[in-house]
Amino acid sequence: MYDRVAPPRSEAELLERAQELAGLGLGQLAARFGEQVPGEPRRAKGYAGRLLELALGADAASRPEPDFTRLGIELKTVPVDAAGLPQESTYLTLAPLRGLTGLAWAESAVRRKLARMLWVPVEGTREVPMAARRIGWPVLWSPSAEQEAALRHDWEELMLLLTTGQLSTLDARHGQWLQIRPKAANARVLAAAHDETGAPAADLPRGFYLRARFTAQILSSAAGALA
DNA sequence: GCGTGATCATGA
DNA sequence: TCATGATCACGC
User: What is the CATH number of the domain that holds A113?
Assistant: First the structure.
């Protein structure tokens, strides 16, 4: 079979690996692992992300930890259009719906995820078949002071709505850069939450997402999005 | 069933 | 056209 790629031992090694993948099509990369890219895009959500995890040696295995556990780095692939602009928001982490009293930004899961991230743009326009979509130039990123302040502002606004049990008024329009949207297999899924009075209740699981216009800043801070 | 990886598809 | 709300696949 095919050996699993060993986790990178340093940021530099991880970045080098990602840079070596730039310009490759997803089909070419998949072939290195004896895989074929799924044919139907609707059934291939998340495939590019899983393939890049495999190729770069991510070791978190879908546990709620950074993808590169030893380096504390989170990997995100982001679909971009022909101009290199992100086409979609980026999922960060589940939003806590219960037991969130006293939760501070400094200890939040959102901040931990954002602390250090490797962004890999991938061609994502629907006209391009999955296998032909090319991997772009990677960006190793941490938030600037201004970016972190803006994200913290959004997070605190959103968390206030969560802690007061105002799930019914919380929708994806809140937040300038961060937003909260459903994150579930379907709209019938329920997670432990609480109501406006603080009593236990169940509600649709939600996740924190980074808006595409924020991700655009990250990608444009580096040179070309596509190699 | 949950949290991970995300993108799809429809209404505004 | 575009973002919101809904959905699809995988590992365990």
Answer: 3.40.600.10
Domain count, chain A: 1
Asked if the Cβ of residue A89 lies within 7 A of any atom of strand C, the reply is yes
What is residue A175's DSSP assignment? -
Please give residues of chain A from 142 to 171 whose alpha-adjacent beta carbon (CB) lies under 7 Å from any atom of strand C.
Answer: 171
Q: Is any atom of nucleic acid chain C found less than 7 Å from the CB of residue A126?
A: no
Q: Is the pTM of this model over 0.70?
A: yes
Q: Is A38 in contact with A133 (CB distance < 8 Å)?
A: no
The pLDDT tens digits of the residues spanning A152-187 come to: 999 999 999 998 878 889 999 999 999 999 999 999
**Nucleotides of B strand lying within 7 Å of any protein CB atom:** 2-9
Residue A79 φ then ψ, to 5°: -75, 130
Is residue A225 scored above 60 in pLDDT? no
A69 inside domain? yes
Look up the domain containing A30 and give its range.
11-219
